[in-house]
Amino acid sequence: MSRNRLRTVASAATVLKTFTASRPDWGVSDLAAHLGKSTSSVHRILSTLADEKLLEQDPETGRYKLGLALFDLAAAVPSQRTLQEAVLLPMTDLRNTTRETVQVGVLDGRHVVYVERLDSPHSLRFFSEFGRRADAHCTSTGKALLAYTPTSRLDRLLKGWDLPQRTEHTIIAHSALRAELKRVRRRGFATNRHESAVGVVSIAAPIRDQRRTTVAAISVAGPAERFDEHQDSIAQAVTHAALAASRRLGFTVAA
Amino acid sequence: MSRNRLRTVASAATVLKTFTASRPDWGVSDLAAHLGKSTSSVHRILSTLADEKLLEQDPETGRYKLGLALFDLAAAVPSQRTLQEAVLLPMTDLRNTTRETVQVGVLDGRHVVYVERLDSPHSLRFFSEFGRRADAHCTSTGKALLAYTPTSRLDRLLKGWDLPQRTEHTIIAHSALRAELKRVRRRGFATNRHESAVGVVSIAAPIRDQRRTTVAAISVAGPAERFDEHQDSIAQAVTHAALAASRRLGFTVAA
DNA sequence: CAGCAACATCCCGTATAGCGGGAAGAACTA
DNA sequence: TAGTTCTTCCCGCTATACGGGATGTTGCTG
To answer: Is ipTM strictly over 0.85?
Structure first.
């Protein structure tokens, strides 16, 4: 943490981040109690953020919630723009080939953030999962990204990382995860077989840029029964799409 | 603007909002010049926001961009959650019926913010347009929302609103817009025929909640040539989907 | 229906956080 | 190699932000 920080801005950021999907609205008093601050201070932060449209206040109840200005900001997150352009056609091709949901994710610490998505024609999924974050250790996207994370950085991530067990198939031992990541590097793709949730299977491959750095991963996900029959061909299609996307980011195959 | 505001927080919000799709990254010096502040002050704000993951700094160039924490916040915006659940099946049905892209939007002042989307099976569109905002006066979604905006509020919006002309078909006169909104109320749906962009046609209908308040609109959009043949049946499907979504929000048809 | 509780909002005295000038260090360019 | 541009940091000064407590509103309960 930088020494030269603005504590009022940090407090306001903390306030913003207290609004979550599971706790979408707060009153002045209960937020003050939650944060251990006075109602005066919290009220000032909330009304300032509301003036800036980052929050909204329900005029009937007086409670605050996140505001629409956040959509504008989320839509402007730039690293995904270059990535978006690169994955446009490969994602569409992959979706049309596999008829399944296709996603692109990036690593954020011990999580995956899904930044792009194309629904399968017969999927009920929605944009609401845009920006969704998931565990890195038990998703194919996460494992595809961790597999190519520099060793020193992976060591730092693993230190103190008590891998959450999501299903009975979830890898929870560091040694097992390291072995699995080695297997991912050998095969060139990662799989998730009921590790993040029972019934969910996915395959992911890394997307690299012109410096050969893995910057994202592309995946196909669906219910297990549709995958088991065609895993080899899906894996091939995913690695093909990942290479196509990589090429568009300037990656060249070694001679 | 509230008198009781935190100017450091307001400055930080201004900094965040300076990052846009068209200007996705800033250095300390050029942002300071842009905002008329000293580099010391701007640097402190930027590094504090980076500590909070709302911004990221490129370690090679020193320039700042928006951070991934914004996805978490955008995904947690609550008013869309209830709406999402309500529009789930109606959107899917509408997409399957029309084979076109389906969106749900809400009004934000003189703009529409698209908060849900389902791509047509043959669309190249992507999540990058999630949260996209568009003019209200020349989109079917916008007109469907403005048509049911209380008169006093519509008057306030129109006052000083110089309607931007996007194509030769765009409504730019207040009187013409009022007449058009009357027509929307009479027909129960709104249309956009090359008004927001040449070649783009869409049809939208209002979604109401249990208090009979119009809270969102659902629309189908596509290229003009696919719409012209089936406008009546598409309009019927859209109004049907809007009613289904409304019912799920507790709306009941008057006896 | 009156009293009470809970909440948001606001005022004001105090002190500390934040401001900007300017210096230091790094990287780039002519 | 010197000059330029940029980011980062230090420090004195002052204006902002803090929290206690008061006020007003709304809803609940006996």
So the answer is: no
